[in-house]
Amino acid sequence: MGKKRFYWLGYERAVEHFVKSCRVCQLQKSPNPTTATPVGETKSFYPFEWLSWDITGPLPVTDKGNCYTSVVTDKFTKWVEAFPLQAIDSVTLTMVLVDEIVCQYSFPTNLQSDQGANLCNQVIDQLCKLLCISRKQT
After folding, report:
1. Pick the residue with more confidence: 132 or 138?
2. Do 47 and 101 meet the contact criterion of CB atoms below 8 Å apart?
3. Which residues form a coiled coil (predicted)?
4. Which among 64, 60, 63, 128 is positioned nearest to 90, based on CA atoms?
5. By C-alpha distance, which of 55, 50, 65, 62 is closest to 89?
């Protein structure tokens, strides 16, 4: 703001020094970001400890008839897998989890999803119980 009205050689350094030495400025400054996990968010310590699962769509229909996407994210590595789908019924989603995640990589320890009926149903719950995968709905 002051740069529009005033300028002298070393202006930026003088302003920086002033702000660093001004007690009021330091009290108004936001604290350094912490490494704490935000409230309501889970912290992962190794790959496949926590997978987050969601469905996007309906989207424009592709040539193959797909109009949904199943998105799975590993919370530790931030690796994202996305799978095009024609339907989001419990059988289709269970097949995606088994064929595309479990058979390709491994069993997750925990599986997090929203409370949508397509991801929270008896078929997926029974699969998770059978594979000892803990479920969490947000």
Report:
1. 132
2. no
3. none
4. 128
5. 55
CA-nearest of 100, 69, 104, 101 to 87 is: 69
Question: Is 0.90 topped by the overall pTM?
Answer: no
Whether the CB-CB separation of 85 and 92 falls below 8 Å is answered with: yes
Q: Measuring CA to CA, which residue among 52, 32, 29, 56 is closest to residue 42?
A: 52
Tell the burial category of 111 from Cβ atoms under 10 Å away from its Cβ (0-12, 13-18, 19+): buried
- What are 54's strand-pairing partners? 71
How does residue 37 score in pLDDT terms, banded at 50, 70 and 90? very low
110-113 vs 68-74, strand pairing mode: unpaired
> How many Cα atoms occupy the beta-carbon half-sphere of 15 within 13 Å?
10
**Position of tokens 């996305």?**
82
- 84-124 pLDDT, tens digit each: 999 999 899 999 999 999 999 888 999 998 888 788 888 88
Could you tell me which CATH class the domain 50-137 is placed in? Answer: alpha beta
CATH 3.30.420.10 residue ranges of the chain are: 50-137
